[in-house]
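Researcher: Re-running this chain for the archive, since the previous output was lost when a drive failed. Same request as before.
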Amino acid sequence: MTDPVTLTISADRVRWSDLGALFQSGVVVSITGPRSVADFLVVDLAIEPDYVRRTIATVFVDSMVVDDLDRTMLRPGSTLTLSAAMPGLVGATLRRSSYYSAMRAEVSWHDGRGGGRNDRGGGRDDESAATIRVKLFNLIIPGVGPSILRRGIVLAHDEAVRILGPDPDLERIAGDREILLRVAA
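Model: Regenerated structure tokens:
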């Protein structure tokens, strides 16, 4: 597959109503090799550490619940899922470093299991992929979504057309090419 065609647009051209569902299903984001979840959020996406600590309450890497963002590794092919606090016992159980975390030991990320490879068929160690899938839910969409869009997401041509609508720049790109869509600040 060829490299995606880069398209940078202004924020006012994005149809934000389409992005909630897109972020929930997951967007493809480039990653520079294996790195911790904390580094990806704070360094790569430039998200304030205080926001990460206080607002991102539930984290999954490759379907495994994460407590330690500094030790949990993302690798090309991983899926990172982020959510604010969810209600009820399930929400409390899945919350990072919660009192109830012992109740989910079997689905928690541990060294040697998760972060690109785990027994539940998560990500792959294909270094050539150099992308991860990021899923955002609830309050995290408006909090983290703009940082991801500034970095850029990889979209199929038809998905880019659905989000942007008719666009002269997209019409010049072959329909089978992937688009690296970046939103200028």
